[in-house]
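Dear Dr. H.,

I hope your travels went smoothly. While you were away I took the liberty of generating a structure for the chain from your last submission, since the lab meeting agenda had it listed for discussion. I wanted you to have the full record in hand beforehand rather than looking at slides cold. The sequence, exactly as received, is reproduced here:
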Amino acid sequence: MAEQPVGPVTEMLRAASAGDSQAAADLLPLVYAELRKLARARMAKTPPGNTLQPTALVHEAYLRLIGRDDPSWNSRGHFFAAAAKAMRQILVEQARRKASIKHGGGRKRVDVADAELFIDPPAEDLLALEEALTRLEQASARQGKIVMLRYFAGLTNEETAAAMDISLRTVEREWRFVRSFLYSQLSDSDNTS
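The corresponding predicted structure, in token form, is as follows:
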């Protein structure tokens, strides 16, 4: 089987992984547009009231990626999966920070006599999604990686299959299962709130 040609991004990723600081600096201009697209897609799925901008998310994620001791990226797909994971972590950290008691957890002060007994949870709860994804990753690392590539990195089924070196049918089957699993997990968390 013939080896596939290596593009300039993959070459720079390998050089950056090997410790070449100039390659790491040259990498950002090559991947910046794709990282911004990825960040905009992630930001579109966050609850209203988010103050983080896509540019800030890209920069924070890139700093986390380059700042690792040994990133060892072996392909473009691996790099974007790592970027998607970094963006996910940043968004979850921000959601936790905003939901912390110090910040009031999004609650408004009301008179106890006027308080309603049932309060609807937000439509998209990023923290509940994070908990469900963590459970999924503990059960199946491969399914967790499929979510990272499909949902967080925005890859297609075909791109995900190529990045993971598995068949397209496997990705399609696992993706159907994962969506069903996450839906049931998030539905259950809504019912227990």
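Two observations you may find useful: The helical segments are 8-17, 21-44, 54-66, 76-99, 126-139, 141-152, 157-164, 168-192. The chain has two domains: 1-104, 122-193.

With kind regards,
E. W.
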